[in-house]
Structure formats: C-alpha cells, structure tokens
Request: fold
Amino acid sequence: MSGSPSETSSETAQRTVVIVGAGQGGARTAQALRRQGWQGRVLLLGQEPEAPYERPPLSKEVLAEGADPECVPLFKPGQAESQGIELETGVAVTALDTAAKRLSCADGREVAWDALVLATGARPRRLSVPGADLPGVHLLRTAADARALAPELTEGRRVLLVGGGFIGLEVAASARRRGCRVTVVEAAPHLIGRAMGPKISRFLRQLHIEKGVHIRLSGQVSAFEGEERLEGAVLADGTRLPAEVAVVGIGCLAEDSLARAAGIDCDDGVLTDAFCATSAPGVWAVGDCTRHENRWLGRRVRLESWENAELAPQVAARAICGKPEPYAAVPWFWTDQYGLNLQLLGLTAFEGELVWRGTPLEGPAVAFELEHGMVRGAALFDSGRERRPVKQIIESRSRVDPEALADPGVSLRDLAKSLA
Ligand SMILES: Cc1cc2nc3c(=O)[nH]c(=O)nc-3n(C[C@H](O)[C@H](O)[C@H](O)COP(=O)(O)OP(=O)(O)OC[C@H]3O[C@@H](n4cnc5c(N)ncnc54)[C@H](O)[C@@H]3O)c2cc1C
Reply:
C-alpha cells in the first residue's frame, strides 16, 4: 500500500502506519510521515525501555566524559504527543503476518497495520569463544550497554578491544581519556579494513599509538579467562593478555529475523528497492536492518550509519504518502577519536589513486580518491567545513584537475561551483 497524490487526507486518516523499532530510523520515520502530511495513526513500537535516542555518543562522550547515554534524544519533550505519534517502549514485536497485515507482540497483543515500516537496526556480533560470558566482557550497542561499560573504565585498568573497527577505536580513545591501559586486537592486517583501507587507516593507527594504545594486528582472541570475572584473554598464537575489561566490537548483523521469518526477501539485511519498499506489499524497511538500493551508488548496500538512519526514513515516508523519490545520496560517515574528526564520503576503500590536500594529524587534510579523473570518494581529517563542497564535487561526476584538489590555495567551494 502506498498513498496516491489523489487521496484525500480523510482517506489516509483512517489508516495506520506501524513502525517496528524505536531507534533513530523508527523515530525519524514517524516524524517524516507527519512532515509529509500523513493524517492517519502512527504507532511506533520499540523494545528498548528508553525513548528513542541517538547512538553515536555512546562510544564517545558517554564513555570519555560520563555523559548521559540518552543525551541526544530523538524527540523533544512533548513532541511525540503533539505530533500524534503513539510511542510505546518496552514492546518487542515477535512475528509478522504480511498477508493479514497484523503483528504479534511479546505481551500477546496483536496489532493491525495498513503500512508497516521495519526499523529494527542491527545487533553486535558475539565472539563465540570460551569465557565470552564472563563479567567484564562487554558489547556496545544500546544505552544499557553503555551504562554497564562506562563505570568499568577506571584509571589504570587494562582494557582490551577485540576488533579495530570504528566502535573498537572510539572506545579505545575514550578509555585512554579515562586513564585506562588499552590494547586493540584486530584480526585483519590493518585497522578499519572494511570501511577505509590501509592508506587512510594508517593515520588512525599512528594516532592511537601516539596516544599510548597498544595495537596488535593479525591477532585473534581464542578465549577469555577468569575465575569470577575477566582476568585476561588468550590469542590464537598462545599469547596471554591480562585485562580486567574487554569490549567486543567485531561488527554487527542486520536485525532482519522478523522479516525473514515472515517470508520477506532478505540477504544479510532486509532487501529494499530505492523507495525502501520490501518484497512484501505495504511493508517498508529503513536503517541498519536493510540492504537497500542507493541510486547514486547504482547498487544495493548495507550501511550502518547515522546518515542512512536519517535519509531512508524520509524516502520511506514520501513513498508511503504517495510522493516517491528514490534514495540517491553519496554515503557519509564520521568518527571522532581524541578530538580528531574523520569524515568519509562515497563509500570507497581508497585503494585507487589518491590526491592529498594537507597532511593528516599535522592539520586539516583531505584525501580525494580519483577514478577516470573524477572524485569518487574523500576522507576529511578535521575538515568538516569542506564536506558540502567535497560532496558536490563527487556528485558532479566531472573530471577535476588534481592540482587544484591538492592546492590549499584553491577554494573547494569555488571548485564545486565551477563543476555544478
Ligand atoms: C556506539 C555506536 C556509535 C556510533 N557512532 C556513529 C558515528 O559516529 N557516525 C555514524 O555515522 N554512525 C554511528 N553509529 C551508527 C548509528 O548510530 C546507527 O547506524 C543508527 O543508530 C541506526 O539506526 P536504526 O534505527 O537503523 O537502528 P537502531 O538505532 O539500532 O534502532 C533499532 C531499534 O529497533 C529495536 N528493535 C529491534 N527488533 C525489535 C523488535 N522485534 N521489536 C521491537 N523493537 C525492536 C532495537 O531494540 C532498537 O532500539 C554508531 C552506532 C553505535 C552503536
């Protein structure tokens, strides 16, 4: 079901959109539906006890500075009520019947929908090794996880990060800020392998080493050890690393189990088209739980990013309200570590030809990846102000003079304008 432009508001007023998952994607979908003029009922069901909040601070300010895990709420006080959004927290949805357009909740309730949006996010991969359930071994996804981890990061404690991806490195930086002794064990030969490749990640490695983090690449944890709680880890090569705290950050799995059980097409994520529609009529999906079509990339992609959880809801809401516009954004992601802000545009591994403007860690710098003379991705080190023009340059798909890109005297804004 999608609305059509000819439908009157009184027709949509009789209908119910149910959103499963009250995280960023779910909250933003509810708000976008109202912005797009949806007059009917909007029911937002989430299994966490908290009202929707943003997750990025959980690995940063919450651990490093003791900020409240809900410091960035997704609804202002009273906003859900004033927009007629029915938010129910602590409600787990257990099954979907796409033919009958009904869902079941863990408390036995059944809820009917006219349109359904899945926004169930992702769940952290667990390390299935002996001792993984010992107290002191943590995962980090939710406010509850952050509440459990933050008080563990006390001065002098030995903290082991299993996985040198974004979450692992952000937690490493926060733990160093708390005076912990930090080791990162990464199975790949370089950090953050999937998202950026060694030409970019080597600067993060250098930064962490300068800040006193011990990094072991090509290492694998084969067991955690301890009597009452964690005392250390054993690596596959037999090395023993003492640690009082470990955080496992080895990636996430799309939370697509409800969809799969309901017969909706999934492939490591709920499959959606460029309008966030799934294979089941009247069912949309947004955010981390999806493998969605991005027209700019020209392919389906699974993204775990704040921006995707902002944009996909707009696309889904427009489609539900009968004003479809395809998802076609240049992907964007950022990370903050020790005051360094690194932003990535374009979803590339930076394995091709790179043009540098500036030198990372010495000051603001941008790495442009060129393909056939066009910029297809960029990494911005402490250069957030350049994000917009760099994005425009990528979007232009025009050939660019590499010397102009490399020259800090050439304004990127002017360059972007000249290509528009
Ligand atoms: C620690 C951390 C730091 C991050 N930092 C950054 C960053 O710096 N930059 C960046 O771009 N991105 C970052 N991200 C990623 C970003 O936060 C996520 O991509 C975003 O939260 C995804 O939103 P979502 O709504 O798809 O999923 P979520 O926010 O995870 O929401 C999904 C919700 O659905 C609920 N749910 C699942 N199944 C059910 C069910 N059956 N019934 C009811 N409810 C259900 C879940 O409990 C959850 O509350 C970070 C993520 C984490 C965890």
Observations:
- The chain has three domains: 9-123+253-320, 141-250, 332-419.
- The CA atoms of residues 307 and 332 lie 7 Å apart.
